[in-house]
């Protein structure tokens, strides 16, 4: 039996037991940090959401319009998640709509352009995973950049006031304080790109190889994903900091 067949056979009861054991380990370890409940909830949500995802994809993937609608749903969910992370007490409809800018706009533009020029097949099986990867990266960057910006502004409030006293506009004063710190949100993506092939073997590469693609095609696709993630994350960070500086987020 080939490697792909072996991989399929191993998806069974033993894998289920391994997942449960690893989840229990994560919950027990995180008890000391107070995140045990969050870990358990995240695990249970992942189980439910991935099961639902499998069912939904089976229905929407064959139809381009349904795939596009599903991407919109993912974008709104990602924006809502970032809004909750950045301003937990103010994650209402306006905040979610503003988060759609950094979270969804760059991803949708890139996916649409790539589909129009033929680089990305205009099919759900290609568009949904690509958009999901990019939305996930933008969501994480937006959340990190927004929280870091607010933390910096709260900690260095006196410096903002000093900048205002020197004649800077409120937006410029706030941006002067929070911009550099918020750039740290890009570190995970930069490290992932630097370490690819040396420390990590990313999922897109592994998935394509297991699916029967050549290692060169898998490498090319993974390079596209990493560079696209850097582009999307950079735009997300820039827009998020601008929104925070304007006190719109």
Outline the structure in words.
By secondary structure, the chain is an all-alpha fold. 80% of the residues lie in helices and 0% in strands. The chain has 11 helices and no strands. The chain has helices at residues 3-9, 13-29, 36-60, 64-86, 93-116, 124-155, 157-165, 170-182, 187-195, 203-210, 215-245. The longest helix is centred in the middle third of the chain and has 32 residues, at 124-155.
Topology at a glance:
Elements: H1 3-9, H2 13-29, H3 36-60, H4 64-86, H5 93-116, H6 124-155, H7 157-165, H8 170-182, H9 187-195, H10 203-210, H11 215-245
Estimate percent helicity.
over 70%
**Biggest pleated-sheet summary:** none
Could you give the count of β-strands?
0
Could you tell me how far the N terminus lies from the C terminus, measured between alpha carbons in angstroms?
Answer: 55 Å
| Helix/strand order | HHHHHHHHHHH
Q: Give the C-alpha Rg.
A: 21 Å
- Model regions low in confidence, pLDDT < 50 over at least 5 residues: 1-9
* Residue fraction in strands: under 5%
The average pLDDT is 82
Please tally the helical runs, counting DSSP H or I stretches of 4 or more residues: 11
Judged by helices, strands and strand pairing, the structural class is: mainly alpha
Shape: globular
Give the gist of this structure.
With 249 residues, the protein is mainly α. The protein contains eleven helices and no strands.
List the defining traits of the structure above.
mainly alpha; 249 residues
